[in-house]
Write a structure and sequence with these properties.
By secondary structure, this protein is α+β, with helices and mostly antiparallel strands. 22% of the residues lie in helices and 37% in strands. It has helices at 27-32, 40-53, 109-125, 149-152, 156-172, 234-247, 265-277, 281-285, 356-362, 382-387, 440-443, and strands at 2-5, 8-11, 58-74, 77-95, 98-104, 175-192, 197-213, 219-226, 257-263, 317-319, 341-345, 348-349, 374-375, 391-405, 410-423, 426-430, 433-438, 447-450, 454-456, 459-461, 464-475. The strands form five sheets. The chain has a six-stranded antiparallel beta sheet. It has a five-stranded mixed barrel with strand order 9-14-15-17-21. It has a four-stranded antiparallel beta sheet with strand order 12-11-10-13, with no helix packed on it. Strand 14 (391-405) and strand 15 form a beta hairpin. Helix 2 crosses helix 3 (109-125) and helix 5 runs parallel beside helix 6 (234-247). The chain is globular. The two termini are 46 Å apart.
Length: 478
Amino acid sequence: MVVQLRDLTILMLLTPHETCDFDKNNNKERNQFIMTIFTEKHAKELLSKVIAYSKADEIECNLDGQVSGNIRYARNTVSTAGEQSDLTLSVQSTYGKRIGTAAINEFDDASLEKVVRRSEELAKLAPENPEHMPNFGKQKYVKANNFSQNTANVTPDDRAQAAENSIKPSKENKLVSSGFLEEQVRSSAIMNSSGVFAYNKSSNVDFSVTIRTEDGKGSGWVTRDYTDVALLDTKKASQVAIDKSIGSVDAKEMEPGKYTVILEPAASVGLLGNLVRSMNQRQADEGRSFLSNKLKEGEKGPTNKLGQKMFDERVHIYSDPNNALAPVAPFAGNGFPRKKIDWIKDGVITNMPSSPFWAKKTGTEYTPSGGHFIMAGGNESLEEMIKNTRRGILVTRLWYIRGLDPQTLLYTGLTRDGTFYIENGKIKYPIKNFRFNESPIVMLNNIEALGKPERINGNLVPPMKIRDFTFSSLSDAV
């Protein structure tokens, strides 16, 4: 079967997630047809050929392939399903400090040379980039563990069964479900003319479902994501949304104000992610960040808050590419190795991501972003947090989060899909949703308890009990 995707013709010789072993005696066919998910051997071979075409001072090329499948359902009925694949070669050529980039998805010899020449032409036309840094030389990488063959073996029948396992209990409870399941296998490789070659194959499965009552007065939601699809149980996950949907009917109004809240991981991952993404060293040094030190004109001192304690001492946020539950590629997009690194330890700002240029300018060690974040947790379960709360609010998730002030990391947004009032250690009744105005800086200074971290959106986040969380107004949406 031949599938036409944009300008790329892929010969589907094997199943969509298998790699192809080319006929070494047929170079023409070998160059013309390449599987979307390529092996390390074939990636190295193809990229070496691209490098050999270069006439520039430096060249860097990236080969990225993906195959994914999905199924979507609404009103308890499957609405769409499909598979897609793509493969792209990107080439960056450099003359001095002039850089040009071109991409292609054709892989015969003529096309490979064409994309190199195009990137060189663009580089010669480009203005000089004063912040350009030379390519990295040869690097060493930790062994990756972010691929599962189980996920690669998923079939359309598997997706249909997973959807049915979510839809059936929804119907049995006279509820209405709408969900989406997608699994993806990716391969990525980078090579440059200075000696870097890195390869990674990864997999991921994402599932989310919203389940509502027929009259729309109750709503529950759940999400799950894993490297290995064998860990996904859509029936079990959907039961969480079912319970919240039934339990959130006839929500009562509560006055806005400051409350003790128990935030499930989906309720805090957005705020924590915004905090981690705002830790860039350059932004801090240039006075554009919550990590900036406000120096008066002519005043000397550190321009950022590296080494300063800013949070509760229990706050430990780090990245680890080989974490068993949330692994990522062992290298950044420029081929520099990732390693386990603390961003915040014992409440202290321990490291800040930067760029090669800014690291050299400031005389600091270059630190790429971690690709994900992990927040260490505690020993209390969600049930224990509720039991130990005299008066508070349980929040399923936050959404529509928008920034208000980058200097204080103040954000606003809404609760959604199940918000509940807690009294004397028990969930007493559902309440209407709130708009919040809160900063993760304040939030991480008001911790009362932490639970076991759970994977969400590729990160690991614990449930958290937080005091004095600010709700500014009510929202009628469920």
